Amino acid sequence: MFFERPGGGERALLIHLEGQAPEAREDPEEFLELARSAGAEVVAFVNVPRHQPTARFLIGSGKVDEIRERVHADGIELVIFNHTLTPSQERNLEKAFECRVLDRTGLILDIFAQRARTHEGKLQVELAQLEHMSTRLIRGWTHLERQKGGIGLRGPGETQLETDRRLLRVRIRQIKQRLEKVRSQRELARRGRKRAEVPVVSLVGYTNAGKSTLFNALTEADVYAANQLFATLDPTLRRLDFDDVGPVILADTVGFIRHLPHKLVEAFRATLEESSNADLLLHVIDAHEPERDLQIEQVYSVLKEIGADELPTLEVYNKLDLLPGVAPQIQRDDSGRPVRVWLSAREGGGLDLLRQALSELLGDDLFCGTLRLPQRLGRMRAQFFALGAVQQEAHDEEGATLLTVRLPRVELNRLASREGWQPDEFLAQHTLQ
After folding, report:
1. What is the pLDDT of residues 287-300, one digit of tens each?
2. Which of 154, 197, 317, 383 is the residue whose CA sits 20 to 30 A from 188?
3. Which residues are annotated as a binding site for Mg(2+)?
4. Which domains does the chain carry?
């Protein structure tokens, strides 16, 4: 009798192991939210006290028998574990339960598959799924391990299983080539922004911390935002304009999660590079979350994995509307530099403080001074006004224009090089009062 993998379904039984080592422990509430985000109808939630997982089933054989009876009695179509299962464990459990078994990685992959909207996002999800499937291919195809037989079909050749593995490798290679092309296109766009010296601010944080809500509040965009895990998969970039800084690119990225599968980090590397190449990270934190310290630790773990842990970071404590008695505020370090902003993206309280903090962090190299522009540089005067950089204007006895300006030094240098002069040549001896 050959093993055929059961089909999936929506009626699910969730299994969570208690007593795990701290580094391997998972959050049962988060597990429940993941299952609901995937669209599962949670029929039962089973906590299994287990300090030492077994090699065959992960859980004990007595508990397997107990759960099998529950599966048959309640018409369960899917059993989901809040832990990583080996291919052999999944196969043994599916044989025992006679229904589909999914582990935590498979569940997250399914959510990603539902959320991906762009061509790039779908490619990244497919790559992660195929690489996950490649280690589990034997489970559903054990009846195809034999070589083709019968008259006219005997002899050396590859088995059906080998054929499927080869086709899988070909598809994985094709997707990686396409994603490499996407990566090179992103790199070109980043170089263009760097040449224009437009700073990039990337939103990062734990899933469902409110990144997309904050993104929409700052940019007046209409990015999909919902109270569910992994609402955003595909990166979205928008331009913001700050009085003291000029144009800024704001990027909304995929959320992180505890024990984010390594395959997903690899597959989404092209997307996550938006964070690793940013000038500033906005680390959005759910201020109302009881385990926010663990979530912060997990976010920094993923940032380290993608090489973004050394970037300048501003922490944004969101969902202040759920914390009575806490007012929007900016917290600073000993040097007066903003390190933390408390706000409510949904209610809008504290957004002005965030803009102020961003202006301070991104506008470190501001030029504030008075320029003396001869009459022949009248066009330059108009450009300063167009940028909104002029704070005061006057004229001296020779008819030259005295402009007190405030703008990023890179913007000043760009204007000066375009006209073929150096800013220091036209610095006025005295600033306007």
Report:
1. 999 888 988 988 88
2. 383
3. 212, 232
4. 11-102 (3.40.50.11060), 197-362 (3.40.50.300), 366-432 (3.30.70)
